[in-house]
Amino acid sequence: MYEKEIESKMRELSEDLRREILDYMEFLLKKHKSKKAEAKKFKFDWVGGLSELRGKFTSVELQHKALEWR
């Protein structure tokens, strides 16, 4: 889509600037890949977070409480 425009502008740059562009592109690719990997992993850090309330409330009561807290 933008390949020709990118190639044209890259030809205008000095060798040092081309290296910077490549470094930045690599940074963006790594950043994008790491976000994708994080999005695929489920986090279960919430497990057991309300265990101290187990004897005080039923699951339905906790659902109602959660709605109140919002």
What's the structural blueprint in terms of helices and strands?
Layout: H1 3-12, H2 15-40, H3 59-69
- The percentage of residues in β strands lies in under 5%
Given helix and strand content, the structural type is: mainly alpha
Strand tally, please?
Answer: 0
Q: How many separate structural domains? A: 1
Question: What portion of residues is helical?
Answer: 55-70%
Average residue pLDDT: 87
Largest sheet: none
List the uncertain runs. none
Shape: rod-shaped
Terminal Cα span: 45 Å
Query: Over all CA atoms, what is the radius of gyration?
Result: 25 Å
Helix/strand order, N-terminal first:
HHH
The helix tally amounts to: 3
Tell me what the structure shows.
There is one protein chain. The protein is mainly alpha-helical. It has one domain (3-69). 67% of the residues lie in helices and 0% in strands. It is rod-shaped. The relative contact order is 0.05.
